[in-house]
Design goal:
The complex is a heterodimer. Chain A is built from 19 helices and 16 strands. By secondary structure, chain A is α/β, with parallel strands linked by helices. The longest helix of chain A has 14 residues, at 51-64. Chain B has 2 domains: 4-64, 3-methyladenine DNA Glycosylase II, Chain A, domain 3 (Orthogonal Bundle); 71-153, Alpha-Beta Plaits (2-Layer Sandwich). Classes of the chains: A alpha/beta, B alpha+beta. Bound molecules: iron/sulfur cluster (3 copies). Residues 88-90, 111, 127-129, 136, 138-139 of chain B line the site of one iron/sulfur cluster.
Chain lengths: 377, 154
């Protein structure tokens, strides 16, 4: 059995027989089957070199830098993330993974908001919210593997009787289309307003018909769960107090950040006591002159104006795959695909630790590369 | 998946009855249900209909892929989420610890299995529509991208 590292579901039931990979969704199968496509090679200023020289050059650049940002790490193992935190401490670097789930993740780690495991959801959950996430596309097996569809200990009668699905989103996504029998889709223009409406209804007050219907279902069970995605985070902004109250009244909250080891990143950051930075802000403020990009492609995802500033930095890219960012980097250090070519541990979206089961071996991986850089400083 | 109307539009539309049907529209219906063959429409094989015939043949390739139960998978639309596999009542009954509990299906020959990221029809003889001739639509109903369709519903 292989553990898929295509998203933070970290599905551990994947079978591989020759070139046939079973049970993994399209994202996971693609990760495995296209592993040899668009691989990086060691480069200094665009010219081929060997990996040791590339690492040496990275160390030189760091020694000459005033302020460094470390970015990415979502596809790195916990082991590699820990080394990255040590490196950050040593050179007083900013650290960011590009995810907006940081605040809620930290609240879960501090136990300020109730959370649970996906196994518990499968066994016990009745009302299941998907709020601001099109899970069918971002984490394709989430619903079939862990939440709405499978039968669990206390949920033996299947989704049509034993679960109630609530999808809240700004548009009718694929996930929303699954809200049929014993289910509801609530179109949201203002998440905070709907949360306030839920709070009123939960305390016996007046609310719209849809909200009242869901509250009636919530009261049938003491185990309900809210999965929240990027849409919800955006909708909430900085005002989390009402949301926390809402979750405490309903049951549990589990984030749905599809980035494979994003929760691992937040835990590593939390344990190291490093505050999360925001690379976009750092670029706008021109606060850094060098960035180490690990397994990520910020040049592709950032707004044009900010990306232009990124391109002006000294860039050290550690990545198994060629990306827009690697193409303009000063140094490229090829790495291994975590879970496919190197082992270690990662955290699933619900903070459950999962041991990876690599199929291939690789001489270099994020952890080893970061360690060599740290050693050279 | 083509509709009878899509096919009808390309037929000679003369209601000549040479195919044994009263109208071209009913011939179109039966083509999709695989109750008639394209060759039954003799005029369509005249040179003047060549281009239209080619188009119909292209459309019917999808129909050809339909299994004995009328279940058709459009692989381009499937993302391998596994919903269809986990909700199938036959899978739940035969493999409660595997597919019934959300895991990859453990049956050697299930009805459906995700391979290389896309659902494949492995053995349709287990499907309720085949054995018991019941109208089960669980798999189709829980595929939000409409990657699964049934012939008779088209
Ligand atoms: S849902 Fe995520 S972990 Fe599971 S098979 Fe798909 S990509 Fe891999
Ligand atoms: S029609 Fe019913 S029995 Fe047949 S494959 Fe779909 S869910 Fe299973
Ligand atoms: S056919 Fe639909 S429900 Fe089945 S795996 Fe593909 S996308 Fe999911």
């Amino acid at each position: 059995m292989w553990v898929c590292t295509g998203c933070s579901c970290l599905c551990d039931d994947i079978e591989i027989e020759g070139d046939v990979i079973r049970h993994a969704c399209r994202i996971g199968a693609g990760l495995y089957l296209n592993r040899s496509v668009a691989r990086t090679e060691p480069l200094i200023d665009g010219k081929q070199t060997d990996i040791d020289s590339a690492i040496e050059r990275a160390v030189e650049i760091l020694k000459d830098s005033k302020r460094v940002a470390i970015y990415g790490l979502n596809n790195s193992t916990l082991e590699a993330q820990k080394i990255a935190m040590k490196l950050a401490e040593k050179i007083s670097a900013y650290v960011d993974n590009g995810s907006k789930f940081g605040k809620l993740a930290e609240m879960i780690l501090r136990k300020e908001i109730p959370s649970t495991t996906l196994e518990n959801v499968k066994d016990y959950a009745y009302v299941i919210f998907y709020w601001g996430c099109d899970i069918h596309n971002s984490m394709p097996r989430h619903m079939s593997r862990y939440t709405y569809y499978p039968r669990g200990k206390k949920r033996q009668r299947g989704y049509e009787e034993d679960r109630f699905l609530v999808v809240v989103d700004v548009r009718k996504s694929h996930t929303a289309m699954l809200a049929k029998k014993n289910a509801i889709f609530i179109k949201s223009d203002d998440d905070r307003k709907i949360i306030r409406e839920f709070l009123t209804a939960l305390e016996g007050g007046i609310a719209s018909g849809d909200v009242l219907r869901v509250v009636k279902e919530i009261k049938k069970s003491d185990f309900n769960v809210i999965f929240g995605g990027g849409g919800l985070i955006e909708g909430l902004g900085n005002e989390l107090e009402e949301f926390v109250r809402f979750v405490s009244n309903v049951g549990y909250f589990i984030p749905t950040d599809y980035r494979t080891n994003s929760m691992g990143f937040f835990k590593s950051l939390f344990e190291a006591g490093i505050p999360k930075a925001n690379l976009e802000d750092l670029l706008i403020d021109e606060a850094v002159d060098t960035a180490i990009i690990v397994g990520s492609d910020p040049l592709d995802s950032m707004p044009f104006d900010v990306a232009k500033k990124l391109a002006k930095l000294k860039l050290i890219v550690i990545d198994p795959k060629v990306s827009f960012t690697s193409k303009i980097a000063d140094v490229v250090i090829p790495s291994a695909i975590s879970g496919v070519e190197c082992g270690g541990r990662m955290l699933r979206s619900d903070f459950t630790e999962v041991e990876l089961k690599p199929i291939f071996k690789s001489e270099f991986d994020d952890a080893k590369i970061l360690k060599s850089i740290l050693g050279g400083l | 998946m083509p509709s009878p109307m899509d096919i009808y539009k390309l037929l000679p539309k003369t209601n000549c009855k040479l195919c044994g049907e009263q109208t071209c529209m009913s011939f179109a219906f039966k083509l999709i249900k695989k109750e008639k063959k394209l060759e039954d429409c003799k005029p369509l094989f005249e040179p003047e209909f060549e281009e239209q015939r080619r188009k119909i043949e292209e459309m019917l390739k999808v129909v050809e892929k339909a299994t004995e139960t009328g279940l058709i998978v459009n692989e381009d639309l499937c993302i391998g989420c596994g919903n269809c596999i986990v909700v199938c009542p036959v899978h739940v009954y035969e493999d409660p610890e595997g597919a019934g509990s959300g895991f990859g299906i453990r049956l050697e020959k299930p009805i459906l299995r995700v391979e290389n990221g896309i659902v494949r029809v492995i053995d349709v003889s287990l499907c309720r529509r085949y054995k018991e001739k019941t109208i089960c639509v669980a798999c189709r109903e829980n595929c939000p991208t409409s990657a699964i369709a049934f012939l008779e519903e088209l």
